[in-house]
């Protein structure tokens, strides 16, 4: 583990440095809770102060020196003090001594834990703060007694007092990545943030405990925490110190809240003395928060609960949990989560006897996509003689928890009990789902079709047909899938969940075909009925997201992708370890980042998706294909090839519907390796296959990739009646009239402009791409325009400025289209060009590089010719528009 880098706090650090440089000499004190990062911020600020410009003294006050006169400033003052001076004289002597040692430099006195200064030191600090050439900066802890001279610093307007807030989620994620030397998956980061409440000291102890207990693992470069918390002694001692000694009454309050939070205040006061509740609140152990019309009680810090639960004896733990369950049962389970909470308390306390309670709670947990909790409750329901219903639910949850083998065993154990009726149709579909997606058995499709024929009830048969339809879609048997799904919708007896699953199948197919309006209408209908199908089939959400995500990705609706990545399902899936959901949404997020030109974010997010889906084959291949695309965007041919190999290895045959994404990624891998003929051949063959399969939405994006490779005139499709073949540009013109949305006409214009070698039209297309936030496409179209303007020396300046502006919005972008502009500049030519762009004269450059002025001028002339610029006025933008050649602004 690396040292703890200074992450975040940029505004606070700048505020501290500005205070030191303030002409009026106002100082700055940061206050905050213990461990919030005050001391580290102060040290970082002092480190950034040049000692040749400032006379800097750093002081760390402590309880040890708080009782000694001038003990707090022992690091500053000499050991021997003049004899016979009055207290005021000693203060004056100390100030004069510091001014003498400063030798005319401004004085900066930095004091950590200023509240621990002894009275004489506090008085001296106040006196120094009044000096015209001195600035006091420091930290103090909330809730501590503050010496009057220190308090007077801000009441006398000598310093500003700033409350230092805890780190936010983004800063915590950045700090974790810096510590561990790599990105941390979102769920782990969120839980560590919640437990630490943004306190760096507590975060440090949590990470050390997780590292020491081997609870941190790395997959595809992404760190993941198991969630098991082994409290290190140092962390336990730290929390124990904060909690302090408790009376038995206050301990009961804290323990009940630890096991039951959030706990209604009225419910809590039925079990304990209200006076003890008040005492716990006064001591800062609990907090009261309003939730609608109810006043809830929570612990003041999440780690208080971890420590209290760990230290509570098993017998008392079970008694407390049974008490909580009994209290809530007495008042009635009125809120949505009450049933779930009672079931968990009953299960944990060993008092769970009602399989219906456990089964209902398991269904509720799965409806919230909390896979671990739902698995635990469903398993308990089955063990309590919950029968086939419990087996069906448990098998479903195990499937989505990446345990398909056990799921099959659970289903087969109750096979004799489900021979007919609705229960039999549910058993068939769950077993089919586990067999097809969990175990990748393609024969499942024919098996479930044959079993469905034996059913006599229309509703039961509709459920089976809906599953068969979506399986056939994923196997790419699109004609049969559409027919079956439509038959389910046309059958009045079809259950709601079966109807909406069939509608998702149709919506997904319409998306792939480029019928985005019809797809959007169908998805909106499914979403509108969510409350009616979620209880029966919560995983239907995944089918809906796949249909919706396909539409948004193919239509390049980046704002739409942002919306679904940020909606409630994403939050629930992430919190509940619903990996298929979080993994797929991460793939979409990486896709949007890639099209925006955010290479680092695209690669990091796609790596996260690969890590989340490492144990599942449903979307694993898609995740690695997106990783290959992200690596290709960055120009990393080795990483792209490795990711493509993993995509092929992990891609499930039953997910054939995803083949366009994988094969499109393969074309990008060829291109980034510099093998443009292979890339062209791959993409052209893929476009032909997609045309035959009727997947026009995918075909459009593949043809767009050919345009990006400057192959707008390449032949595609079958031979026409005149013996020729359509060009990419001609085929795109046809598709622009068949596919919905604004993207197809824009792509068709792009192809036409490239085919006709029209720089002006290419620049107009780039503007339209920019307006849609498709920064990579815009930059490539601009680069293509510049490449066609090479013979127009002196006229490329504005276009280069536009390309430079686009590339400033990107990071780590290096594509074949952009490489068209990369001339073979030597290191010497590039060095001279950079200096010239910074405004240095030829004579100054010659003196710096020990060359003759004539040599510099000759080099510059060759640079102008290679870059296609008229002179130094266009050189700055030209350098910025060299991807992979110059990553920094010459200014």
TrEMBL record:
Name the residues that span the membrane.
none
Keywords attached to this Swiss-Prot or TrEMBL record, sorted alphabetically, are:
ATP-binding, Nucleotide-binding
Q: List, alphabetically, the Pfam families matched.
A: AAA_16 (PF13191), GerE (PF00196)
Does this entry carry the keyword Nucleotide-binding?
yes
Q: Spell out the protein name for this chain.
A: ATP-, maltotriose-and DNA-dependent transcriptional regulator MalT
Give GO cellular component annotations, separated by semicolons: cytoplasm
Q: Which residues form the signal peptide?
A: none
């Amino acid at each position: 583990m690396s040292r703890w880098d200074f992450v975040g706090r940029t505004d606070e650090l700048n505020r501290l440095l500005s205070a030191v440089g303030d002409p009026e000499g106002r100082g700055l004190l940061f206050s905050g809770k213990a461990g919030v990062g005050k001391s580290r911020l102060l040290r970082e600020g002092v480190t950034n102060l040049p000692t040749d410009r400032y006379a800097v003294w750093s002081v760390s006050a402590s309880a040890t020196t708080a009782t000694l006169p001038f003990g707090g400033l022992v690091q500053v003052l000499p050991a021997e003090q003049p004899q016979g001076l009055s207290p005021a004289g000693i203060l004056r002597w100390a100030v004069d001594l510091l001014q003498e040692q400063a030798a005319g430099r401004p004085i900066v006195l930095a004091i950590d834990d200023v509240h621990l200064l002894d009275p004489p030191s506090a008085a001296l600090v106040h006196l120094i703060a009044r000096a015209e050439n001195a600035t006091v900066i420091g930290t103090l802890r909330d809730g501590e007694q503050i010496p009057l001279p220190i308090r007077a610093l801000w009441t006398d307007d000598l310093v500003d007092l700033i409350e230092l807030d805890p780190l936010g989620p983004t800063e915590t994620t950045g700090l974790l990545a810096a510590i561990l030397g790599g990105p941390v998956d979102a769920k782990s980061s969120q839980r560590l943030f919640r437990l630490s409440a943004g306190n760096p000291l507590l975060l440090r102890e949590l990470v050390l405990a997780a590292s020491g207990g081997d609870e941190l693992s790395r997959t595809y470069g992404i760190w993941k925490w198991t969630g098991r918390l082994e409290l290190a002694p140092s962390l336990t001692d730290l929390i124990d110190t904060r909690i302090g000694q408790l009376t038995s009454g206050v301990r009961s309050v804290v323990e009940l809240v630890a096991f039951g939070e959030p706990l209604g205040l009225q419910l809590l006061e039925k079990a304990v003395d209200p006076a003890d509740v008040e005492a716990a609140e006064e001591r800062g152990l609990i907090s009261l928060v309003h939730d609608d019309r109810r006043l809830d009680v929570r612990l003041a810090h999440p780690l208080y609960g971890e420590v209290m639960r760990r230290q509570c004896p098993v017998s008392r733990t079970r008694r407390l949990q049974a008490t909580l369950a009994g209290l809530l049962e007495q008042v009635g389970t009125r809120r949505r989560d009450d049933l779930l909470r009672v079931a968990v308390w009953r299960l944990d306390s060993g008092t769970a006897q009602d399989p219906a309670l456990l089964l209902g709670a398991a269904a509720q947990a799965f409806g919230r996509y909390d896979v671990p909790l739902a698995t635990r409750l469903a398993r308990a329901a089955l063990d309590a003689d919950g029968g086939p219903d419990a087996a069906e639910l448990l098998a479903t949850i195990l499937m989505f928890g990446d345990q398909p083998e056990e799921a099959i065993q659970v289903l087969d154990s109750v096979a004799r009990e489900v021979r007919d009726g609705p229960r039999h149709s549910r058993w068939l579909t769950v077993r089919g789902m586990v067999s097809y997606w969990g175990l990748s058995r393609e024969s499942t499709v024919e098996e479930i079709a044959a079993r469905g024929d034996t059913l006599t009830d229309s509703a039961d048969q509709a459920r089976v047909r809906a599953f068969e339809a979506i399986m056939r879609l994923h196997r790419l048997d699109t004609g049969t899938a559409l027919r079956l799904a439509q038959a389910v919708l046309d059958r009045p007896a079809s259950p709601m969940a079966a109807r909406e699953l069939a509608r998702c199948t149709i919506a997904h197919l319409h998306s792939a075909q480029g019928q985005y309006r019809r797809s959007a209408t169908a998805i909106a209908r499914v979403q509108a009925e969510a409350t009616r199908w979620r209880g029966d089939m919560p995983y239907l959400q995944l089918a809906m997201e796949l249909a919706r995500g396909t539409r948004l990705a193919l239509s390049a609706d980046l704002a739409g992708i942002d919306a679904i990545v940020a909606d409630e399902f994403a939050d629930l899936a992430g919190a509940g370890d619903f990996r298929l959901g979080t993994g797929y949404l991460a793939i979409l997020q990486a896709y949007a980042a890639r099209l925006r030109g955010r290479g680092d974010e695209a690669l990091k997010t796609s790596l996260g998706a690969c890590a989340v889906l490492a144990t599942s084959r449903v979307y694993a291949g898609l995740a690695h294909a997106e990783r290959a695309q992200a690596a290709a965007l960055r120009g990393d041919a080795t990483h792209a090839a490795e990711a493509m190999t993993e995509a092929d290895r992990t891609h499930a045959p039953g997910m054939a519907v995803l083949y366009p994404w994988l094969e499109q990624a393969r074309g990008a891998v060829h291109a980034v390796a510099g093998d443009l003929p292979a890339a062209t051949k791959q993409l052209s063959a893929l476009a032909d296959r997609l045309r035959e399969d009727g997947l026009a939405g995918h075909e459009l994006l593949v043809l767009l990739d050919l345009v990006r490779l400057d192959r707008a005139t390449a032949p595609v499709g079958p031979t026409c009646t005149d013996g020729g073949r359509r060009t990419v540009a001609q085929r795109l013109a046809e598709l622009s009239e068949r596919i919905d949305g604004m993207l197809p006409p824009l792509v068709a214009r792009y192809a036409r402009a490239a085919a006709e070698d029209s720089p002006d039209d290419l620049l107009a297309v780039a503007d339209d791409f920019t307006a849609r936030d498709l920064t990579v496409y815009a930059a490539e179209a601009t680069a293509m325009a510049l490449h066609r303007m090479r013979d127009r020396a002196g006229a490329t300046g504005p276009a280069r400025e536009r390309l430079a502006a686009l590339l400033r919005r990107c990071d780590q972008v290096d594509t074949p289209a952009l490489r068209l502009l990369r001339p073979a500049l030597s290191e010497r030519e590039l060095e001279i060009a950079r200096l010239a762009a910074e405004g240095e004269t030829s004579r100054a450059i010659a003196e710096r590089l020990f060359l003759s002025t004539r040599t510099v001028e000759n080099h510059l002339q060759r640079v102008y010719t290679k870059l296609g610029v008229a002179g130094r006025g266009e050189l700055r933008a030209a350098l910025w528009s060299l991807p992979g050649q110059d990553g920094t602004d010459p200014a």
